[in-house]
Amino acid sequence: MRSLFHKSLVFVIIAGFLNSCAGDRDRNYQYFPDMYRPVPYEPYGAYDIFANQQEAKLPVDGTIPRGWMPYDYEDTPEGRADAKANLKNPLPYTEENLTKGKALYTVYCAVCHGDKGDGQGTLVEREKILGVPSYDDPGRSITEGSVYHAMYYGLNNMGSYAVQTSIKERWQIDHYVMSLKDKLEGNPERSFQTNTVTQENSDNLNPAEPAEDLSEKDQTQSEE
Ligand code: HEC
């Protein structure tokens, strides 16, 4: 037993000695070269076998990223009017969607629009921004479609929320904004629907991320 210990000690010393002899300027011996030189092509490598030597390919024309769907209404007055009249919220009006919408609204919108949606957010009270409307402004008579459109493209002093929020999140916020509008106008509260998303609607909503859990996502949200 003891001699085995001695033998291995000698081996370790020799190995350490050999190792320390490598010159500063030369590469040391590679024990497992495939750990340094990958067998497959490097993602951004240049190889003769590819056109332009370029390993990384452009996506096929018309490719859309996962979790993203093209938005058909244009950022023009006509597009806005069209969305206002025709675009509908594909999410059912459930307690869950409303609760999530409220949480997101508080994060993204309340600083300007106020917790009640009356246009009296902190920034307005401190006179940092002007012209924030109340959601019951009769001149605007906002609809599900116009709210979504405003979030997607932004409107004058209001920025776009297309990057910070997913399609589903925007529709959740939309439900909450419409509920604030109802409250401001003194309308009766809308009753909740059962949680059934029709196939057609859910396709429009999130092509590749079906039942994503918002609470989990929230933690990673800040870096997204
Ligand atoms: C930086 C302040 C600010 C924030 C944050 C903000 N808004 Fe606005 N919002 C405005 C201003 C200012 C206007 C008026 C724009 C105009 O008509 O010139 C406006 C207008 C609107 C309108 C009316 C659009 C129309 O068609 O007339 C809606 C709906 C709206 N915002 C919803 C939201 C929602 C939902 C959020 C959160 C995702 C949000 N806003 C975040 C400042 C803000």
From TrEMBL:
Compositionally skewed regions (Basic and acidic residues) per UniProt: 214-224
InterPro entries: Cyt_c-like_dom, Cyt_c-like_dom_sf
Superkingdom per UniProt: Bacteria
Keyword Metal-binding in record: yes
Any GO MF annotation of the entry: electron transfer activity
Region of interest: Disordered: 187-224
DNA-binding among keywords: no
Domain Cytochrome c: residue ranges: 96-181
Biased composition (Polar residues): 190-205
Keywords: Heme, Iron, Metal-binding, Signal
Record SUPFAM superfamilies: Cytochrome c
Pfam families: Cytochrome_CBB3 (PF13442)
Signal peptide residue numbers: 1-22
PANTHER family according to UniProt: LIPOPROTEIN-RELATED, QUINOL:CYTOCHROME C OXIDOREDUCTASE MEMBRANE PROTEIN
UniProt name for this protein: Cytochrome c domain-containing protein
Organism: Zunongwangia profunda (strain DSM 18752 / CCTCC AB 206139 / SM-A87) (Wangia profunda)
